[in-house]
Write the structure tokens for this entry.
Amino acid sequence: MRDTVHHPLFARFYARMSVAMDTKGGVAAYRDELLAGLSGRVIEVGAGNGLNFAHYPGAVSEVVAIEPERRLRQLAASAGLRAEVPVDVVPGVAEALPVKSEAFDAAVASLVLCTVRDLPRALGELRRVLRPGGELRFFEHGVAQGRALATAQRALDRTVWPLLFGGCHTARDPLAAIEAAGFEVVTYRRLRIPEKGPQMPTSPCVLGVARRPA
């Protein structure tokens, strides 16, 4: 089957950069926070190279990890073999998840909503596959609250950024999009990555929990 997402150069860059950010940028601790307390069946969209897998708690009975990019999917499959919970890595895109409705207790979106081609449709799919009352855990970068950086983000999104970084858009508002998709936001906090040093277009982040209404 021909891959619907194919960014081989970016995949190689992301695989290296994401590991560095986990070890030196403090992202691993945010992954722990993102996944703490999960249980039952979980679907993760845009699993990348599988860095979340080592952070799932033992109460998770299964992780179905969706990754459309071939090289990243291969890396995720290797990471899944090392995980302490069962992980099944499968091809697919967030806008058309290859799973049944209301089949999962929780969903995870981690640094992926910036790249999906149709954000409302992707979030609608996540709502579809969650059982009523199921949780959406999200950890995403998005539009800055300061005017200067937000303006720069929008300019980058209209020009070179998506071409260089695998379709990434820096000025999306994941929190607003999650609410617009019909989720109830339970809790969230804003953070900056990295915490110190120059601020990047991807530095403003939000981490939180939303719920599909029962």
